[in-house]
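Review form for a predicted model. The reviewer records the input and the model, then writes brief findings.
Reviewer: anonymous (R2)
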Amino acid sequence: MSKNVEENEDLIVDVQEVYSKTEDFIENNKTVLMAVVLGVIIVVGGFFGYKKFRIEPMNIEAQSEMFMAEKYFSQDSLQKAINGDGLNPGFIDIADEYSGTKAANLAHYYLGICYRNTGEYEFAIDELKQFSSSDVMISTVALGAIGDSYMELGDADEAISYYEKAVTNGENKLTSPIYLFKAGLAYEDIQDFSGAYAKYNAIKTDYPDSREAQTIDKYIARAESLK
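Model under review:
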C-alpha cells in the first residue's frame, strides 16, 4: 500500500472519529443544547417584539408630544423648547421619558442646538454627541455645532477636529465651504497660518461658486503673509 493511500485512510478514520465524538456529544448534551437554542430564539424574538410593541408606539407618542417643543424651537423660544411651557413637554422631557426612540434621538439634536445658541456650550457638546443620524445634512450640522461649541470654550484644536469631520462627513456645495472657512479661522486662532491657508485655498479651488469664495481672497492673502 502506498504512503498516500495510507495517509488518506488515516484521514478518513480521523474524520469518522470526529463525527462519532460529535454525535456522542450532541446525544449526551441535547437537553442543554436545546435550552441554549430556545434561549436564543426567546432573546431574538423578545428583542423584535419589544421593538415592535413597545418602542414603535413610544416613538409615535413621543413625536406627538414633541410638536410644541419643535414649534417653540422654530420661533426661537429656546427656553420653552428646552424645558417646556408647563403644559407641553420640552426636549429635555422627551429625551428622558422616551429614551431609545427616534424622537428622543432627535431631541438630543434640538437640545444641542438650543444650548449652543443660549451659550451653554458644554451642555451643547454633551447633547450633540448623544445624537446620531444617517441623514448627511443634519449629521453634518451637528458636527459643526460641536465645533462651534468647542471654539466658544476656547478649545480651537477640538473645534478644528469637528469642523474637519463636518467637511468630510458629506461633502457638498452648501456646508463644506462653511466649515472649511470656520476651520481656517480656528487654525488662525492657534497661529497655524499654513493650516488656515490650506482651508481657505480649498474653498477657492473646490467651491468657487460658494458664498464663502466671494471674499476668500483676502483671507488667503492674510494667511499667506503670516505663515
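Findings: Residues 5-12, 42-53 have pLDDT under 50 and may be disordered.
Further findings: The two ends are 82 Å apart (CA to CA).
Recommendation: see findings above.
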